[in-house]
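Quick one, probably user error.
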């Protein structure tokens, strides 16, 4: 393994420049763990074999034999005297260890130690140490591997700089390629995202168009249903209007027909009365011809009775026929117009009120009923007499 090359030491009497390049240790360098382990193993083997102690003894003997020791000692004393003269109270009153630490710092700042290190570095035979360590490495890994390591470690600063620049350029190229790939990937992702957004937008537009069509279809259906309902309502309204007009016309016809019916009934009743009177006259004439005795008396009596009966029967029959005609008219009008208002009956058509006799406290209903029954019997008897031509019974 190649050891770090030592810098050229300054000449005797010169102090090392404070701006000299820093010397790095193996522990300060960013080395792989295998390289670091190999270096530590070589250092341990070098010390274990006794070569380290031998070189240290040689260097110290050379240092004592030369005038370097006196120069270093003189420089240390000068710096110490300067510090005591500059701050005598602090250095002379403090503990010796604290005062020694202060003077040691002043020596470090003045460059005395750097000068001593440079002198000792000149006394060390770096080539012999390197050769000894390379022999140990060749014994461990072999001649070829050790030679390859020596070639890699014997590079100059310019070669290291060029190699470092080449590696940096390669790393930069790789980073640029990676960046371009990342940019291409990002661009592709953006393109895919744009395509996805366009696709989603088209799908949303299609969905919106579909929803709009569905809304329009529902609106058309509602319009059609509304128009159909309006048409049905118009039809029903027209139908009700026609039915109302039909009912009004029928009501008007019924109203117009009622007086005619009443007139026909009255004419028919008058004709019937005239026929009945003529028939009775014929019967009376026939009876007058057939009777031989008491003709005049019987005729007078018969005429008196028949006149009274005629007056009674004609009055009751007239009232009954009017009531039946009125009931028929009311029945027909209630069948044709069930929901029409009740017909107003003319007061002139109503039968005259009957004069009711005193009501019996024991049985009022029976007396009234018997009176009505007797009236009906008399009217029926009169009708039979008129139709059959029979002579009414003598009173």
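Nope, works fine. Designed sequence:
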């Amino acid at each position: 393994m190649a050891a770090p090359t030592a810098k050229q030491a300054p000449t005797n009497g010169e102090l090392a420049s404070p701006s000299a390049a820093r010397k790095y240790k193996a522990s300060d360098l960013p080395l792989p763990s295998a390289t670091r382990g190999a270096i530590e193993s070589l250092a341990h083997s070098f010390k274990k074999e006794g070569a380290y102690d031998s070189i240290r003894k040689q260097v110290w003997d050379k240092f004592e034999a030369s005038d370097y020791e006196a120069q270093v000692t003189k420089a240390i004393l000068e710096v110490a005297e300067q510090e005591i003269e500059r701050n005598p109270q602090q250095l002379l009153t403090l503990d010796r260890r604290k005062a020694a630490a202060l003077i040691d710092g002043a020596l470090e700042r003045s460059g005395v130690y750097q000068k001593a290190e440079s002198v000792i570095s000149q006394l060390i035979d770096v080539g012999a140490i390197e050769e000894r360590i390379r022999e140990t490495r060749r014994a461990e890994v072999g001649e070829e591997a050790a030679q390859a390591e020596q070639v890699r470690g014997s590079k100059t600063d310019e070669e290291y700089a060029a190699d470092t620049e080449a590696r940096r350029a390669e790393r930069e190229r790789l980073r640029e390629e990676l960046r371009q790939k990342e940019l291409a990937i990002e661009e592709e992702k953006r393109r895919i995202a744009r395509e996805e957004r366009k696709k989603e937008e088209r799908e949303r537009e299609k969905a919106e168009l579909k929803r709009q069509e569905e809304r329009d279809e529902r609106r058309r259906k509602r319009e059609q249903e509304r128009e159909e309902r309006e048409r049905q309502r118009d039809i029903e309204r027209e139908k009700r209007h026609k039915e109302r007009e039909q009912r009004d016309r029928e009501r008007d016809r019924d109203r117009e027909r009622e007086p005619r019916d009443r007139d026909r009934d009255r004419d028919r009743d008058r004709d019937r009365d005239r026929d009945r009177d003529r028939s009775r006259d014929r019967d009376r004439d026939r009876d007058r011809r057939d009777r031989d005795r008491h003709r005049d008396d019987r005729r007078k009596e018969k005429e008196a009775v028949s006149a009274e009966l005629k007056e009674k029967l004609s009055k009751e029959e007239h009232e009954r026929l009017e009531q039946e005609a009125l009931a028929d008219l009311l029945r027909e009008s209630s069948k044709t117009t069930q929901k029409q208002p009740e017909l107003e009956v003319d007061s002139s058509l109503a039968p005259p009120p009957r004069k009711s006799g005193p009501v019996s406290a024991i049985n009022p209903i029976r007396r009234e009923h018997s009176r009505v029954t007797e009236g009906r019997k008399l009217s029926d008897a009169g009708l039979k007499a008129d139709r059959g031509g029979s002579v009414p019974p003598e009173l």
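Confidence is low (pLDDT under 50) at residues 1-20, 363-369, 383-395.
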